[in-house]
Design a protein that fits this description.
The protein is α+β, with helices and mostly antiparallel strands and 178 residues long. The mean pLDDT is 91. The protein is 34% helix and 27% strand. It has a single domain, classed as Aminopeptidase. The protein has a seven-stranded mixed beta sheet, sandwiched between helices. Strand 2 (63-69) and strand 3 form a beta hairpin. The chain has helices at 20-27, 43-59, 106-121, 136-144, 163-173; strands at 10-14, 63-69, 75-82, 90-98, 126-132, 148-152, 156-162.
């Protein structure tokens, strides 16, 4: 099964232990971690986390990617697919960070590549995820893709996106990744 995904300007490749410094630099940077769970660990801690993650990858229960520019292989971010078991046929995704080196279209491109991998390759039928309420741009983005808010708490909205709604979005916007 081909997990790596390739779009027009970016591609996904599976995380390696050698990516720990890059990942840690994103996770501890206030520009990028504003809407993510806080991380206080070191590069060494990140390496240990990746080692544990790689076992989940081998078992097919989670996938963590470095997002790279196709042109020069510059890493520009991360994204992770996980929580495959809690809701039958559903997955979640997060750890989505794009740095200042990103391409102009890397946000929409990376989201579409996530859904291409999950819905077409891994054959999930639905996605469940949460977004912090203050992250208004990402909320708008997901709604445009057809995601629906199904629940909320004081901090987050909880969304579902089904495969059919994504396919409708894809049919209108496939030029972003093809």
């Amino acid at each position: 099964m081909k997990l790596e995904q390739i779009g027009k300007t970016i591609k996904f490749r599976l995380v390696e232990i050698s990516d720990a410094e890059f990942i840690n630099s994103l996770r501890v940077d206030g520009k990028y971690n504003k809407y993510l769970s806080k991380v206080t660990g070191s590069v060494k801690d990140q390496k240990e986390w990746i080692k544990k993650y790689k076992e989940k990858e081998k078992s097919g229960i989670e996938y963590y990617f470095i997002i790279e520019k196709i042109a020069d292989k510059t890493p520009i971010g991360t994204v992770r697919l996980y929580d495959f078991a809690s809701v039958k046929g559903s997955f979640s995704w997060g750890s989505w960070i794009l740095n200042e080196n990103k391409t102009r279209l890397s946000a929409v491109e990376s989201a579409m590549l996530v859904y291409e991998l999950a819905f077409r390759t891994l054959q999930f039928s639905k996605c469940h995820f949460e977004v912090r309420k203050e992250n208004k741009g990402v909320i708008t983005f997901h709604k445009k893709m057809g995601a629906q808010i199904i629940e909320e708490n004081e901090i987050e909205y909880f969304f579902n996106l089904n495969k059919k709604n994504y396919i409708n979005f894809y049919n209108e916007k496939k030029h972003f990744i093809e």
